Amino acid sequence: MPLSRSLSMTSLTGVLPAWEEDELPVEDLLLFEVSWEVTNKVGGIYTVIQTKAKITVDEWGDNYYMMGPYFEHNFKTQVESCEPPNPAIRKAMDALIHNGCQVHFGRWLIEGSPYVILFDIGSAAWNLDRWKGDLWDTCNIGLPYHDREANDSLILGSLIAWFFKELTDHLGDKPNVISHFHEWQAGPGLILSRSRKIPMATVFTTHATLLGRYLCAGNTDFYNNLDKFNIDKEAGERQIYHRYCLERAAVHCAHVFTTVSQITAVEANHMLHRKPDVVTPNGLNVKKFSAMHEFQNLHSTNKAQIQEFIRGHFYGHLDFNLDKTLIFFIAGRYEFSNKGADIFLESLSRLNYLLRVHRNDVTVVVFFIMPAKTNNFNVESLKGQAVRKQLWDTAHAVKEKFGKKLYDALLKGQIPDLNNILDRDDFTIMKRAIYATQRHSLPPVTTHNMLDDSADPILSNIRRVGLFNSRNDRVKVVFHPEFLSSTSPLLPMDYEDFVRGCNLGVFPSYYEPWGYTPGECTVMGIPSVTTNLSGFGCFMEEHVSDPAAYGIYIVDRRFRSAEESCNQLTQFMFSFCQQSRRQRIIQRNRTERLSDLLDWKYLGRFYIHARHLALSRAFPDKFKMDPMAPLKTEGFRYPRPYSVPPSPSASIHSTPHHSDVEDEDDEPYDEDEEAERDRMNIKSPFVLNAVPEGKKQQPGESRN
């Protein structure tokens, strides 16, 4: 059965061209996807498998199953229990259940409603010592008793390998099985399945190498020393050698090895000693609005809600114009250096200096949304919101009284005397409200009480750069050390609504294998800053001719020093502050237009290609693919927006100006016309990362 070299995809709302190919005979195949985060949110992999579920179910129907660990609370709240549609799966489950190991089946209540098979680790823990012996006999990897996560991953892997053995024995030659394993926690299942020669095609995806994350967290000059690390020594010193061995063994056992980005592919080649066969970028489910103005309206609505919080948080010091205030934010795991919070704070200090020196009337309020250890809300923050609400209630009471008197006077045909329309009590109430807004301290830089205030990296660096929210500061800082929630008494907003209300997301990460945060900004039409060390940044450089014109600012952290990167980030933010309101609206339209690139309908093709390749390697007699043909992962390239002048300086003002002034020389712009022209100019498929023979790729050069 020959497999086509081209990749299939559906048409993306008419923006990216369709791609035709001979589809896999999914009715004669079973696809299993294994991850520790199936129904169990731990990190970014949960987002990957959850958002990808719908397009996979659409393609595979009832022949697609997810596998992971069973947690009672997650099962009761996220899974609808049901019977497996395939008798062979029921028999395989029964074989484990009859031997004292609990297995649960149902539909995961997410978009697409995929089937899930969940294994109860606790019910099988009595086999741990025996299974450790099996792992040692198989590949000489020993697991220490105190590493519970590694032990649990071995129990899960042993159950999965046992399940696949029972399943393939019942199925025979047809249908064939493809199993896709994510991250090292799923690795033992792959290692044991391959060592027992279970007939199935296997794919292993690493979303970030174990050792890479540890090394970067230690402020190592990671990317310039990739070829110099003694891998075994580094893993041993960090007491993760056994985990590293599981990860590396899984990588080399898989028929196909994939990573989520080109930058992680380079890392994996050095850390795990295997070059990835396919790069499988992470996508999102993009919900397009029928009219362009709809997402702009959402931005205005949610920004107004954030402004209400700012009014309360900065009460008594609200001497800046909220209509000329820009809202920046950074969000993610609290990895101070890896997520780039270190150079972000330094750049904010420099931005504050530039805005003050140029006497710019723009104010920037910056939110740090990173969960840290706290014991409660900050009293000053709660008081600020209470004062704001009290002022609102007072203003409304006076307004009602004023409005009634005005209404009565107009009914009588009189123009009321504005000096007498409010009595002395009204003025007393208003004066008391004004006095209530007085405060003798600066607005707090954090919304919560930190458990270890003196050692906290963000707070320590805020003290170092002196961003204390004083009246003279044009950059104000709010550290919210907790994930956002619509039930919060302080900032009652979900993360998605908060992002939509911001002006710019800033994610200058040093270690970011993919980077969902700037991707989420893009699909919501919010410009963002990323780096060429993040998978997202590299992906955009490959797919977009002029990322900055589309609101994707890419900081060079790979080929520049920290000082140069910091200056570049400062300049990006300062240039953004100089834009007029009209320019920001145009840029948001362009940013939102890139959302098709991040849609699983487009990015799902890379997973399809990986499955094709795995089948051709596992079952070469049934599924043919030319082994001499170069492995291709194809894509499209967005042109520079039609209305952007050839010189970047022509579209960005060189001197600060009133952010709401509409200049006569603003670039001509028609959203529908520009979108249509860009759609026509999208370049035909090209091979990612291909360098013409004889030409050496230069640092920072876009691969085209």
UniProtKB/TrEMBL annotation:
Superkingdom to which the source organism belongs: Eukaryota
GO biological process: glycogen biosynthetic process
Extent of Acidic residues compositional bias: 661-675
Pathway(s) per entry: Glycan biosynthesis; glycogen biosynthesis
Pfam family, one: Glycogen_syn
GO-annotated cellular components: cytoplasm
CDD domains with a match to the protein in the record: GT3_GSY2-like
EC class (word): transferase
Listed Basic and acidic residues bias regions: 693-704
Reaction equation(s) it catalyzes: [(1->4)-alpha-D-glucosyl](n) + UDP-alpha-D-glucose = [(1->4)-alpha-D-glucosyl](n+1) + UDP + H(+)
The UniProt record lists the keyword Acetylation: no
SUPFAM superfamilies in the record: UDP-Glycosyltransferase/glycogen phosphorylase
InterPro entries: Glycogen_synth (IPR008631)
Record region (Disordered): 639-704
The keyword Transferase is assigned to this record: yes
EC number: 2.4.1.11
Protein purpose: Glycogen synthase participates in the glycogen biosynthetic process along with glycogenin and glycogen branching enzyme. Extends the primer composed of a few glucose units formed by glycogenin by adding new glucose units to it. In this context, glycogen synthase transfers the glycosyl residue from UDP-Glc to the non-reducing end of alpha-1,4-glucan. Transfers the glycosyl residue from UDP-Glc to the non-reducing end of alpha-1,4-glucan.
Family classification: Belongs to the glycosyltransferase 3 family.
Protein name per Swiss-Prot or TrEMBL: Glycogen [starch] synthase
Gene giving rise to this polypeptide: gys2
